[in-house]
Specification:
about 425 residues; 18-stranded parallel β-sheet; cell wall; 11-stranded parallel β-sheet; mainly beta; endo-polygalacturonase; Glyco_hydro_28
Length: about 425
């Protein structure tokens, strides 16, 4: 018996449908949207603020709309997107967005989140925060939109601007507390009331493609503040503020910073550490490929007297400095108090610090300052291939060291550390 033959017969409508499907897929691919991204989009639930009553006119309070959209997204059993639509301004008061969530959540900011201009919307009990993400795993914040802290009113009422005002905390624009596998990317953060972004008690963090901007005279407006967090990467960011571009504080371990442009501001700072006789532990910090323009400091480590603990295994390398006031500085006698700090014997130990391939110009003669503790001297400090000149060729640069053990190699400085200070200089 002859084997049976299977024949597939396609009707004209079915052929047309197949052709249309192929054409749509080809069109999607040609527009830069892969089949994979289409599948990912279709597998996500989208929760738009506008669907929860948001006005987006910059004057009506949209806090509850975002809170409801977040609650729905966080409860979603499949990956969810909280959408802040474009071309709108959503006015927000203090808001905490908490996990854990059932699946991953992406907050896509296309428009602008703007802080209430009314300082009375914050009580003295919680003046330090504006938008807070807490205890969320697999959180992504992106979208290319903006977060506007509306900080001008706060700056005018800061004791650092108006000496008649009492010194009080002001909100941080974006805070991330106890988050794991966190990504913040392609976002503009402007005019924060105080710190622009704070990463606290987080693990496995990627901060990429951020633009952070505030007036150079705005008080305490750090760009990115990192504390008690580990395995953090900061890449391809531009930061212009009135304080540290990056402030790296107690409990930070395994941090890599690269391709960052900083200025105006106070530079890249580790510390302050050891405040109020506290213990601090910082290690595994690499700051690589950074440009600083007109900052008050370049690569800085600052600790208070009376502290304890360590700051170790730190590298600042491949840095370009333009008109920087203090290009390289370690200060174990730092003090930012209303009253002078008293001399104390204990200190945070600073060791195994490398400054490598750093060049550019300084507006102060002391291009390198190592001001270390008498009781706990800095040690294992390496200066390699340092070439810093006075801005406009106005004289020779200098370096000073107190209570520091350091080596130098390929460093172009006419006047090394004075021999009257306790220091060991080894030229390789």
């Amino acid at each position: 018996m002859a084997p049976s033959k299977l024949q597939l017969v396609f009707s004209a409508p079915l052929i047309a449908l197949l052709f249309l499907s192929s054409a749509l897929m080809a069109s999607a691919t040609s527009n830069g949207t892969s089949a994979r991204s289409l599948a990912e989009t279709s597998s996500q639930s989208v929760f738009s603020l506008d669907s929860y009553g948001a006005r987006g006119d910059g004057s009506h309070d949209d806090t509850q709309a975002l809170a409801k959209a977040w609650a729905a997204a966080c409860a979603s059993p499949r990956p969810a997107v909280v959408l802040v639509p474009g071309s709108k301004r959503y006015l927000l008061k203090l808001l905490a967005l908490s996990g854990p969530c059932k699946s991953s959540v992406t907050v896509t900011v296309k428009g602008t989140l703007v802080a209430s201009p009314n300082m009375a919307d914050w009580s003295d009990k919680d003046r330090r925060h504006w938008v807070v993400f807490r205890s969320v795993d697999e959180l992504t914040v992106n979208g290319g939109g903006a977060v506007d802290g509306n900080g001008e009113t706060w700056w005018k009422n800061s004791c650092k601007i108006n000496k008649a005002m009492p010194c009080k905390e002001a909100p941080t624009a974006l805070s991330f507390h106890f988050c794991t596998n966190l990504k913040v990317e392609s976002l503009k953060i402007v005019n924060s009331q105080q710190i622009h972004m704070s990463v606290e008690d987080c693990t496995n963090v990627q901060l990429t493609g951020l633009s952070i901007t505030a007036s150079g005279t705005s008080p305490n407006t750090d760009g990115i503040h990192i504390t008690r967090s580990k395995d953090v990467q900061v890449t391809n960011c531009k930061i212009k503020t009135g304080d540290d571009c990056l402030s790296i504080e107690n409990g930070t371990h395994n941090l890599r910073v690269s391709q960052v442009v900083c200025g105006p501001g106070h530079g890249i700072s580790i510390g302050s550490l050891g405040d109020d006789n506290s213990r601090a532990e910082v290690s595994g910090i690499i700051v690589d490929t950074v440009q600083l323009y007109g900052t008050t400091n370049g690569a800085r480590i600052k600790t208070y007297q009376g502290g304890s603990g360590y700051a170790k295994d730190i590298t600042f390398q491949n840095m370009i400095m333009d008109s920087v006031q203090n290009p390289i500085i370690i200060d174990q006698n730092y003090c930012d108090k209303a009253k002078p700090c008293q001399a104390q014997e204990s200190a945070v130990e600073v060791s195994n610090v490398v400054f490598k391939n750093i060049r550019g110009t300084t507006v102060t003669k002391d291009a390198i300052k190592l001001n270390c503790s008498k009781s706990v001297p800095c040690h294992g400090i390496t200066l390699q291939n340092i070439d810093l000149k006075m801005e406009g060729g106005k004289g020779a640069t200098e370096s000073t060291c107190q209570n520091a053990k350091w080596t130098k190699s390929g460093t172009v400085l006419p006047q090394p550390c004075s021999s009257k200070n306790w220091g060991m200089l080894i030229s390789n």
